[in-house]
Amino acid sequence: MAIIITGASGGFGRAAAAQLLDKIPASELIFTTRKPAGLAEFAARGASVRFADFDAPSSLPAAFAGGTRMLLISTARVGSRVGQHQNAVTAAVAAGVKHIVYTSLLGAAREDNPAIVKLDHRATELIIEKSGASYTFLRDSQYAEAIAAAVIPPALMSGVLPDNAHDGPIAFVSREDCIASAVGVLTQSGHENKAYDITGPELLSFPKAVQMAIELSGKNIAYKPVDDEAMFAYFDSLGVPRHASDDPVTAPIPWSSDDMVTFGQSIREGFFNVVTDHVERITGRKPRSLREVMLQFKDSWPK
Ligand SMILES: NC(=O)c1ccc[n+]([C@@H]2O[C@H](COP(=O)([O-])OP(=O)(O)OC[C@H]3O[C@@H](n4cnc5c(N)ncnc54)[C@H](OP(=O)(O)O)[C@@H]3O)[C@@H](O)[C@H]2O)c1
Predict the structure, then answer these.
(1) CA 132–ligand 1 middle distance (angstroms)
(2) CA 31 / ligand 1 centre spacing (Å)
(3) Between the N and C ends of the chain, which has fewer C-beta atoms within 10 Å?
(4) Which atom from ligand 1 is nearest to the alpha carbon of 54?
(5) What pTM, to 2 d.p., does this model score?
(6) Among 194, 176, 212, CA closest to 287
(7) pLDDT at residue 240 tops 90
């Protein structure tokens, strides 16, 4: 048995690779990436580090050769990554991969979910379901780290957080728990053809997250509920592109407002109103709270 992790130099992939190296022999691990030089430390520990670019299908057969299980980490280009994932799944199954674990999104299978990011995820899930391999879909809630590291710091700087999610319930999940869940599924049996909602321990909301940040920082943030049009206008004012692209000239920021505004709409309309015990069932430990994640990042917040 050999386990493949794709995109192993990304934030999720690198941490998953490190955890797997602590659990199973390095000779049973294959880490693929567009930047193999960045994974020299894993190669030195005996893992097989190989070049793979989903946009270059000819690179994939050699990259996936010998693998029997694969963690397919969704790529970053929201709106146009399904073809990349299709290339990866086709090549993996042709190379002999029997089980594919995929990093999906909470609510991916709900038809009426307005979050455009779910379209890529559901399309990829369907590709995997039809591939002939067994699968596990890890449908992650919103990362708590995204709140603590990307939402709160600018809000502390400006003193205001415009937001279109309003008091929509959400159980923010630590990315560390998502990674540990992926590693658990890859190294245990019994997860074939399952979809797990991966959530944090409690339902909160953006206003509650802001209140927590106010308490921990001692600084005020005015939470400002806005509608979707005003949210687009706010991101426009920051220079965030409406659509995601890999073009560093027209879209130098790797995220887009159509993704974020429809994500907020999805939270507001209740599509993230889910708490499960899946993290604990898979990893054997309770999921981290948003407060724990905020405390981890607090020292990096603007003073
Ligand atoms: N639920 C949430 O709140 C949330 C938040 C953020 C992200 N996510 C999801 O989690 C995923 C991983 O997040 P992250 O923080 O690890 O992102 P990241 O550090 O930006 O990594 C992006 C990943 O995409 C891979 N990739 C990009 N283009 C590729 C290509 N052409 N061929 C093969 N791989 C390619 C990269 O692999 P290499 O660079 O190693 O080739 C890397 O693993 C994201 O893509 C996103 O779908 C979820």
Answers:
(1) 24
(2) 14
(3) C
(4) 32
(5) 0.95
(6) 176
(7) no
**Mutation probe of ligand 1 site: the residue of 75, 151, 179 with most atoms within 8 A of C-beta:** 75
CATH topology of domain 144-168+201-273+288-300: UDP-galactose 4-epimerase; domain 1 (3.90.25)
Determine whether the shortest distance from the Cβ of 84 to ligand 1 is under 6 A. yes
Q: How many CB atoms lie within 10 A of CB 203?
A: 16
- Which CATH number is correct for 3-140+174-198, 3.20.20.100, 3.40.50.720, 1.10.630.10, 3.40.250.10? 3.40.50.720
Distances in Å between the Cα of 298 and the Cα atoms of 15, 153, 176 are: 21, 9, 17
In sequence order, the 6+-apart residues with CB closer than 8 A to the CB of 98 are: 68, 69, 133, 134
Pocket lining: 140 vs ligand 1, CB cutoff 6 Å: yes
Mean pLDDT computed over 49-77: 96
Region of 208 (left: φ > 0; alpha: ψ -120 to 50; beta: rest) is: alpha
Domain ranges of the chain: 3-140+174-198, 144-168+201-273+288-300
Q: What integer pLDDT is reported at residue 40 of this predicted model?
A: 97
With contact defined as beta carbons under 8 Å apart, do 179 and 12 qualify? yes
For ligand 1, whether the C-beta of 289 sits within 6 Å is no
CA-CA distance, 263 to 118, in Å (whole number)?
9
* 167 CA distance to ligand 1 middle (Å): 28
> Which of 199, 2, 200, 225 minimizes the C-alpha distance to 95?
2
Quick: pLDDT tens for 178-206. 999 999 999 999 999 999 999 999 999 99
Residue closest by Cα to atom 21 of ligand 1? 10
Tell me if 181 CB under 6 Å of ligand 1. no
> Residue 104 belongs to what H/E stretch?
strand 99-105
From the CB of 19, is ligand 1 less than 6 Å away? Answer: no
With pLDDT > 90 as the criterion, what percentage of the chain qualifies? 91
